[in-house]
């Protein structure tokens, strides 16, 4: 989770002092008087009275309500966030009024100030793990910055909104802003990783791949994580040529983990390319000696090799004792190697019946009847 570090110049909001004003046929003398006296709680109550019951109160009444609630928010210690919430809601209502455009020049500076306050509070909520609250405040900031034309910081705020939405499990909002940021080539790898994850969970694997492929032209930190995810997406789509190409690229730039190497081995195994498969699985075991599948796969490869060698010897060299004996030695060498890996596999997952079945056959071939009978009993359960 990315912590948000604020580097913001906080401007003290200079409230507007005004003479008697008439807005929407409502006389604001009482509100003006209370406001000038610094009686902001009473002024807030008065503006609420003027708005009450009206479906079209006008943008300026909501503006004044935002103004006085922002002052109350700044004047309280500890902070009472209900005032900032009220200021934000009122500003949103101001934007929805028919006469907003007429009063835009007056309203927008206050809107921007409220947006900054929401960002500061949202960052605190995010760092405290309250992602729902953070999403709410960052959404206000994005809306207010967009509307007031303050776009220089907008991408950064969208990034934080996308993250908080994602961690709040509101994936619809997260996807919306991640897509916007991706279209802007935003320079944070999390944008592309999270967007690809969302697409993956929607079973849109090709979209996920396209998102990550497009990052390769960018200079992003954590590109190893992006390339790693791309490898597994290719594998999920059974696009093994691209998977191997991505694995080779990864190996030239980074130190691959055992999961990447294991999947490289699986791809080679599926293509009947046993030498590179063996190399890969052995490499896995240097990194993770108790890796069940790497041990099992090596056991199977050597087991199949031994059976193929013996079959070839019986079909082609039975009448040639020296050649037959040499092939039988190869057979015994391979089956003993298989046994060593199968026994390790069995030690890791003793209940795996494929391993037990293979061990039973190997023990029988090697005339190790006590171990054979033990495996047989397990198979009969």
Q: Keywords, please?
A:
381 residues; mainly alpha; Serine Threonine Protein Phosphatase 5, Tetratricopeptide repeat; two-stranded antiparallel sheet; 18 helices; 2 strands; elongated
Give the proportion of residues in helices: over 70%
Q: What is the rounded Rg? A: 34 Å
Secondary-structure element string: EEHHHHHHHHHHHHHHHHHH
- State the CATH architecture of the domain at 1-160: Alpha Horseshoe
N- to C-terminal separation? 48 Å
Largest sheet: 2 strands, antiparallel
Find the structural class using helix and strand composition: mainly alpha
Specify the overall morphology: elongated
- CATH class (first level) name of the domain at 1-160: Mainly Alpha
Mean pLDDT: 92
Number of helices: 18
Strand order of the largest sheet: 1-2
Assign the CATH topology of the domain at 1-160: Serine Threonine Protein Phosphatase 5, Tetratricopeptide repeat
Uncertain segments of ≥5 residues (pLDDT<50)?
Answer: 7-25
Number of strands: 2
């Amino acid at each position: 989770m990315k912590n948000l570090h604020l580097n913001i110049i906080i401007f003290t909001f200079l409230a507007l002092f005004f003479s008697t004003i008439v807005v929407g046929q409502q006389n604001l003398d009482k509100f003006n008087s209370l406001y000038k006296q610094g009686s902001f709680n009473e002024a807030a109550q008065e503006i609420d009275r003027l708005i009450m019951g009206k479906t079209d109160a006008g943008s300026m009444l909501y503006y004044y309500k935002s103004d006085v609630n922002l002052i109350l928010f700044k004047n309280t210690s500890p902070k009472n966030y209900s005032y900032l919430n009220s200021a934000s809601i009122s500003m949103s209502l101001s934007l929805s009024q028919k006469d907003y455009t007429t009063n835009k020049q007056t309203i927008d500076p206050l809107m921007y100030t409220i947006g900054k306050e929401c960002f500061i509070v949202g960052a605190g909520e995010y760092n405290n793990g309250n992602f729902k609250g953070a999403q709410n405040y960052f959404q206000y900031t994005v809306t207010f910055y967009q509307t007031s034309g303050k776009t220089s910081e907008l991408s950064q705020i969208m990034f934080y909104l996308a993250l908080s939405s994602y961690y709040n499990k509101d994936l619809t909002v997260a996807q919306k802003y991640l897509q916007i940021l991706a279209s802007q080539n935003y320079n944070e790898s999390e944008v592309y990783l999270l967007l690809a994850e969302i697409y993956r969970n929607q079973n849109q694997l090709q979209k996920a791949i396209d998102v990550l492929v497009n990052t390769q032209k960018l200079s992003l930190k954590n590109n190893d994580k992006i390339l790693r995810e791309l490898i597994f997406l290719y594998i999920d789509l059974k696009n093994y040529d691209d998977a191997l190409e991505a694995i080779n690229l990864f190996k030239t730039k980074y130190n691959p983990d055992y999961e990447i190497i294991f999947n490289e081995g699986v791809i080679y195994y599926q293509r009947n390319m046993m030498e590179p498969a063996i190399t890969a699985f052995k490499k896995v075991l240097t990194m993770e000696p108790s890796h069940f599948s790497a041990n099992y796969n090596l056991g199977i490869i050597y087991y199949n090799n031994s059976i193929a060698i013996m079959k070839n010897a019986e079909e082609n060299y039975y009448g040639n004792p020296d050649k037959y004996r040499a092939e039988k030695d190869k057979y015994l060498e391979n089956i003993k190697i298989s046994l060593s890996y199968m026994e390790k596999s069995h030690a890791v997952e003793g209940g795996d019946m494929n391993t037990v079945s293979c061990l039973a056959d190997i023990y029988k071939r090697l005339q190790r009847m006590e171990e054979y009978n033990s495996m047989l009993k397990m198979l009969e359960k």
